[in-house]
């Protein structure tokens, strides 16, 4: 964590607005040297004999030399080598060549041999750039305050949507500013360079910053980039942490401190936008749920009011629909963050799902087309949903769910029936194996019987009570496998990777704990139904 007093480095100077796209011709891996002063190398200093001590004892500064041909006191381009030697003699930590022509390879090699980073500054920006550098080195707090106050002033007069806020901060810092959730970039803005062709890599591109849980603001060098990180207090802490990140590969300690203060100013309009967006999203989803309820109450018919609301939400109720039903593994309802993350991954997997709508027991979404041929096949939908869940799980994001896929149906009544098909399938999906997390509707009577049983609240409570003594233990997993494998001890041992004696011991423990006899067919049937029916957080 950086803190005052801060040392200004060559890297910090390169992060200044007029220096952001200035190329480093040589020695760009040694830019973290402290800069104590900015001084111009005049002819007296250039003519000093080798080995002569630096004038005024100046050491560790940034040397500036005018290389523009024809100007008063200017150097010829071929004399940059002389300036490099003078900078090395004065122990300068970098040389800025103003208006230098195309440099020979020998000059770059000389800079590397002398250990002096060589920067080439366009003459058009020389005056303002040198003034900026002098202010940054001699009064870093002034420069720091100027940037932060400018951010605050512009944010006070700008639109409050996050892209506009991030754009203001990014241009003030001459870097990238992004709003990040876990390993996903929600919004990002990049500063506009003076000359992108001069050094395309000078400004950092938006890249996910690898972060765990961020408990407090901090600054550091992450992946070779100066980075400032600020956690945002969200309206709903359960929807996943959001952080503001500012990054610049040329950002030294002074830049990082300034960036953190600029993010602190920006967090308030961002947090206000998040609250407004959450409220708007809740209203939209509840309005969508109300439309579905109205269609259901009308027996699948569309009233004029329901049609108007559906069209306002962007639906095509009279088209063909293929529904999904998302059921959380626990009995806790899905929150907005989980639904938004899953929607994004579903669309990335090629499934154009309408926004998920809260329903009893989970959330429903669907895809719509003008004909059944325009919809993805059920098999393709199952593959896409599995890919989306795997991506979320791989990122460690919240949202442990199972999903049912319905069948393609037409019209408003068909939409409700497709959602009901998907809901029944979701009740039969299992969170234990990846291939069982997504279940497609088969329409078979066996599936309907099992779904009806699994969806009954009384059955779920009784199942939880029956399995309570072994819930969440290895004995429960052994019992489940044993029943699924037709009560074969050997097959169960092989599936679980344990000795058959271990299986038999666990089954005896199940009988003792539940006070049941596994030799009784009715008992085995009840246990198998209970294992399918018990609330998932008890499993």
TrEMBL record:
Residues 477-532 form the PucR C-terminal helix-turn-helix domain. It holds the Pfam family GGDEF_2. Gene3D superfamilies: PucR C-terminal helix-turn-helix domain (1.10.10.2840). It comes from the Bacteria. Residues 304-424 form the CdaR GGDEF-like domain. Belongs to the CdaR family. This is PucR family transcriptional regulator. It comes from Streptomyces radicis.
